[in-house]
Design brief:
Elements: H1 2-9, H2 24-47, H3 56-68, E1 72-77, E2 81-88, E3 93-99, E4 118-120, E5 126-128, H4 135-151, E6 158-165, H5 173-179, H6 182-185, E7 191-201, E8 205-207, E9 210-213, E10 215-224, E11 228-229, H7 239-250, H8 252-255, E12 265-273, E13 279-280, E14 283-292, H9 295-315, E15 325-333, E16 336-338, H10 340-354, E17 359-361, H11 372-376, E18 383-392, H12 394-401, H13 419-437
Parallel strand pairs: 3-6, 3-7, 7-18, 8-17
Antiparallel strand pairs: 1-2, 2-6, 4-5, 8-18, 9-16, 10-14, 10-15, 11-13, 12-14
Helix pairs in contact: 1-12, 2-4, 2-13, 4-13, 7-9, 10-13
Length: about 450
Amino acid sequence: MIRTFLAAAAAIALPAAFPGMASADDLAASLDAQMPALMELYRDLHANPELSMQETRTAAKLAGLMRKLGYDVTEQVGITGVVAVLENGAGPTVMLRADMDGLPVVEQTGLPFASTAVAAARSGVETGVMHACGHDTHMAGLIGAAQLLAEHKDQWSGTLVLIAQPGEEVGEGALAMLEDGLFTRFPKPDFAVAFHDAAMPAGVIGYSPGYALANVDSVDITVPGVGGHGAYPHMTRDPIVLASSIVTQLQTLVSRGQDPQDPAVVTVGSFHAGAKHNIISDEARLQLTVRSYGDASRQRLLDGIARIARGEAIAAGMPEDRMPVVTMADQFTPATYNDPALADRLAGVFAGRFGQDRVTRTPATMGGEDFSRYRRADPDTIQSMIFWVGGVTPADWQASQAGEKALPSLHSPFWAPDAEAVIATGAAALAAAAMELMPAS
């Protein structure tokens, strides 16, 4: 399989196999002609990232480009979101989405157009800003698909809705757009499609029928105690010991409480208590990330966290008014579900477009994506699919498989995908998906 990936990734030409299209050569030529401008757009977006829910420059740039292509564009949907609509006769409604926000990361890629942007994070701390998750390639790919579909309206029939979404990294943008009337002010889609770059061989498409990404919950546990001098622990109720017992018992939620066929993760990422060697503090604080797929599993894990925190406090002799406090922090991101029939259908389209060697079924991950919210808003009528597009050059992939090089991951200050391969593949795949779902009448 690795050799197959390498052979596929080494040939990121623009094959002309859009299924069912009489002018496939014209479409491939159109995308080829677009690539210099799309790469220029990518470099500009990469050099000028903006933090979540602050994407004003980015949104304005994308809105202007879509207007020039003939779309009916509305800005400031869900604070900084952009919605572009192109009606083209009778047929289904297809929504294509790209996310816009960067991350509070100081870039270390060494690219000539590397970001030097600085902004204030929500914590108030000034930080560098970087497109360390590849959203710049997503946006350029969306614009590429927008142009292909606008130029070849004879190849499809229906309503196309393009979404430039803010705030994916904080799990707020999709919800903000929905609460601002995305599916009431604008045509509600029958199908929603998106892609995400990945540490896979460049130009290879990965897809996961069913669950693709996880529920993401952030949980805070405040553990009260009775502080005092470290030399006299019998006169205290040590919250560090109690919190440590809670951490240990939390591990049983997955190892002994979760069906092994139903993956889940409970990670304690932060443990804070005290400030001096000889003082027992009067409080400990834990921060958790909790990952699951189904709603029932999610609720079982969250209920279990509260039960264990309380049970360990009772065992430690804490009075009722000094029980641990469990609170949900940040925005809950629901699991992303790819409708299996749609995923298999579009995978077939991608195989016809790019060749079977560049399309592979991939396992679900425990990462999170708020693209999930669009299908979840009306799961009876909206089908959705998100797929991966690899961005690792053949040489780097081969070196990593030989154990000679460690690949940077998404969110790394060193993440610099093969942007041309990601953008060309993503744009072609989005256009192919839309044309498959909105066939010409």
